[in-house]
Design goal:
There is one protein chain. This protein is an alpha+beta fold and 408 residues long. It has 3 domains: 18-102, Rossmann fold (3-Layer(aba) Sandwich), CATH 3.40.50; 131-190, Dna Ligase, domain 1 (2-Layer Sandwich); 194-399, ATP-grasp fold, B domain (D-amino Acid Aminotransferase, Chain A, domain 1, 2-Layer Sandwich), CATH 3.30.470. The protein is 26% helix and 25% strand. The chain has 11 helices and 18 strands. The chain has helices spanning 26-37, 68-75, 90-97, 106-112, 115-124, 171-180, 237-253, 297-300, 305-314, 350-354, 385-399, and strands spanning 18-22, 41-46, 59-62, 80-83, 101-102, 132-135, 151-155, 165-168, 186-190, 194-204, 210-212, 216-221, 224-230, 258-267, 281-287, 327-333, 359-363, 374-381. Strands 10, 11, 12, 13, 14, 15, 16, 17 and 18 form a 9-stranded antiparallel sheet that branches. α3 (90-97) packs antiparallel against α4 (106-112). The N and C termini lie far apart (56 Å). The model has no long low-confidence stretch (mean pLDDT 96). Bound molecules: adenosine-5'-diphosphate (ADP) and magnesium ion. Adenosine-5'-diphosphate (ADP) is lined by residues 130, 152, 159-162, 189, 191-192, 194, 197, 220, 223, 263, 284-285. ATP binds at residues 115, 154, 159-165, 189-192, 197, 220, 284-285. Catalyzes the ATP-dependent conversion of 5-aminoimidazole ribonucleotide (AIR) and HCO(3)- to N5-carboxyaminoimidazole ribonucleotide (N5-CAIR). This is N5-carboxyaminoimidazole ribonucleotide synthase. Keywords: ATP-binding, Ligase, Nucleotide-binding, Purine biosynthesis. One of its GO terms (biological process) is 'de novo' IMP biosynthetic process.
Length: 408
Amino acid sequence: MQHQRPPAYEQVIQPGEYLGMLGDGQLGRMFCHAAQAMGYHVVALGLEADGPTGQVAEQYITADYADEAALEKMASMIRSVTTEFENVPAMSLKQLSYTTRTAPAASSVAVVQDRLVEKSFISAQGVPVAAHAAIRNIEDLDTVDAALFPGILKATRFGYDGKGQAVVNSLQEAKQAFSELGGVECILEAKLPLAYEVSVILARNHQEDIAIYPVGVNKHINGILSSTTVYPELVPQDIVLEAQAHAKKLAIGLNYFGVMCVEFFVLDESKLPDGDGQPRLVANEIAPRPHNSGHYTINATTCSQFEQQVRVMAGLPLGDTSLLAPTIMLNILGDSWFVDGSEMATEPDWASVLALPGVSLHLYGKAEARKGRKMGHVNIVHHDIDTLYQTAQRVSDTLHLGAELNRG
Ligand code: ADP
Ligand code: MG
């Protein structure tokens, strides 16, 4: 049945109905799990029918994200749709919005698809960002402020997991990196002295309620998230409150509906020039979807980030975001299948990991392990923080994750 208009915002979409997911990856898969646990069905649209999402969605439409006929078909099955990746064409969300509740809206997603537009938006909300300049062609580099070096040159679009960016120490290096990135539009950001990185996950529904999760500390290896650690004493309370306030402001400014993540840098004050006036907390980027740094919510909160996504889509009240116990999330990359220089994939020792206290294993059903590919994650939840760190270290050692788990 083709619906003429999207459901009114106060209207609840009841269990038993279909929810739509644009995407085929692990975030779509975990969304399906949450939706199905609540009695919903999912129709997903994406490129890979046998991917992490396709394996679990009740219905799957194999198509390009801009395929109007495929989107039309999806629209006829659903009354609410979401996405799991920011590069979904904003036009596709727009098309679906004529008949379907979209969370997030195309207009919100469009802002964060482009790092320059995103930075201007964040800054316009009064939230600090790194000093930066638009680099649309190589000549633009000649006129940039020397204070932007050392800097990071990032393609404005399609970058993720540290891909599409390079650290540049000089104008010379920046020119080289600009060419290596293919001469596409870039942003040059000053490289900030980071003390550590945090992220805030929140959900906002069409009733304009906001549910906000605790602040997690993120560590990366080679540009890919390695761990997220969350417990009350970890981050100073003033930083927590400021990060959460900034994230809320950004969600409201974007007129955002759904689950989103804001990544922040906490700067190392000892490395800032005296009297710089530089704020300590700087927003880095916004993800218009559940985020890898929010995977801990599956085991460490009553309502996971994926369940919140379902609740927003269905027009239901938001769930409880409070932390039930201290937690560490460790990402598992395909490298864990190729230890000690082996070229042959060997299944990691899951049994040893699962024998440890408070461990929960999540694998994404990817057929082939490849180096650098996100294959799954482990959540460790424990009331005792020493046990939490010790267990995380043992998981990391067993799976050869190389996670940096020093406390404090
Ligand atoms: P991605 O989309 O790949 O996650 P990010 O903009 O988040 O791109 O950059 C990846 C990582 O690079 C960040 O998590 C941070 O560690 C580092 N980084 C990015 N921008 C800066 C900056 N301006 N100053 C210092 N480090 C940065
Ligand atoms: Mg990032």
